[in-house]
Amino acid sequence: MPALAFLAALFFAALIDNGARSLVPPGGAPWFAYYQQLATDPFYLRALFETVALAFVTTLVCLIIGYPVAFYLVRHARAGRTLIIFLLISPLLTSIIMRTFGWRAIFARRGLLNASLQYLGLIERPLDILNSSASALIGMVHVLVPFMVLSIAAVLEKIDPRIEEAAEMLGASRLQTISRITFPLSLDGVASGAILVFMLAMGSFVTLLFLGGGSLQTFPLLIYQQFNTTRDFGMAATMSNVLMVLAALLMFIQLRLIRRSGVT
Amino acid sequence: MIRRRAHPLWLAYLWLFFGFILAPIAIVTIVAFQAPGFVAFPIEGFSFKEPLNNVAILAHLDH
């Protein structure tokens, strides 16, 4: 009972306040005016598109680079398995600000990457990598790819390797076995990881602030700006509610997938 | 089940992947010993109240 009261006070009260602010604008404007503005104003529609597009591309890149690692971890790693898992989760044990500053030191005009490329004679002048959508994407993938790998590995672990061996005995090549047997059987893990990464990417703030440098206008950045600069609490609450509903929807789908695949 | 030896390409890919994962952490550690001001947080003049107007401050740091 005290736990429920604690939750109600700190969690639901804030949500109800957020909902009320977004529904009833001040100054006698009609209900849902904020939502109407969000759905019709090109600025906010573009921000919503950039938020979803960035989350989608991040998820896709995480899947492409994370699947082979998950596959290696489950099918090939022997003694090094614990080390791989440790290395995989080690970035999660450090501060996100520290990791983001690491990328800034790499991508800066006189950073490691530009210095290396110039030393190798591949470029004459330093490239402007920092404060672009590319640097933001790399930072996001770096933060989120461990979640994808671990989600896929959890499902790959449950696939009986004898099925793959049977396919190879019947004449399938290694690549055919992976593409036609292993990958389709691991789709639950792929979907689960994709939803998790997509949700986290949509709400990402620090990475975009430090690496995007204003090149991207996503909802979390705008929410922060609305709360702290323009003081438009109603619009900030509306945007956060839209993000929350999207996240809740995705979490519902993810729970259904997890229940179906039996991964806990 | 017999675990097969991984193709060398797998291992090369794994090295690349973990290089990517660990690079920023290693860089911050190295930089922290050389230029303490760079990783000081919050950056001088940096304000969370103006998140989208910090580009100039951050760009100045990079030059």
Describe this structure in a few short sentences.
The complex is a heterodimer of chains A (about 260) and B (about 60). Chain A is mainly alpha-helical and about 260 residues long.
Write up this protein.
The complex is a heterodimer of chains A (264) and B (63). Chain A has 264 residues and is mostly helical. Chain A has a single domain (31-263), classed as Orthogonal Bundle (MetI-like fold), CATH 1.10.3720. Chain A has 13 helices and no strands. Chain A starts with a helix and ends with a helix. By secondary structure, chain B is mostly helical. Helix content of chain B is 56%, strand content 0%. Chain B contains two helices and no strands. The longest helix of chain B has 27 residues, at 8-34. The mean pLDDT of chain B is 73. At the A-B interface, helix 3, helix 4, helix 5, helix 7 and helix 8 of A face helix 1 and helix 2 of B.
Key features of this structure:
heterodimer, A: 264 residues, mainly alpha, MetI-like fold, B: 63 residues, 2 helices
CATH superfamily of chain A: MetI-like
Pick out the low-confidence regions of chain B: none
Number of helices of chain B: 2
Spans of chain A of 5+ residues with little confidence (pLDDT < 50)? none
Number of strands of chain A: 0
